[in-house]
Amino acid sequence: MTDFRLLLDALTGAGVDFVLVDRAAAIAHGSTRLTLDLDIVYSRTPEKIAKVAQALAPYSPYLRGVPPGLPFRLDPETIQRGLTFTLTTSLGQIDLLGEIAGGGFHALLPQAMTRIAVKRAAGRPKDLEAIAGLEAIRDEINQLQSEEPQ
Length: 150
What we know:
This protein has helices at 4-13, 22-28, 46-56, 76-81, 105-108, 116-122, 125-147; strands at residues 18-21, 37-42, 62-63, 84-89, 92-97, 99-100, 103-104. The chain is of the alpha+beta class. Helix 6 runs antiparallel to helix 7. It starts with a helix and ends with a helix.
């Protein structure tokens, strides 16, 4: 079971810049859909890549789905040479995404709260289903905010 709070605390505590995406982001906005992993789009500047490695190092990151015992080290050089890493850690599963359909960290950040379009662009049935729930939550929040006295 993934401990989302501890993974997020590790990332933020180390100063990692990231945008939460996919189902974990939907849950943060009130969706009831479950997920087994934390998906983030991380900043790929050398300084921030070093912070990703630092944040996850205490939790034994290893490539998910790879047989045990194969050599793997999640360090800044490895992250710099790659883009996406699907990992298992002692805190659970995390997907480090260098970019998604909507772009990398810096492209996503200004619109981090409104990236439903990314899911729509993917066009997967599970994403389209999630969009309906997220849009309903967004509409309800907007309605409540418009009813608040100014």
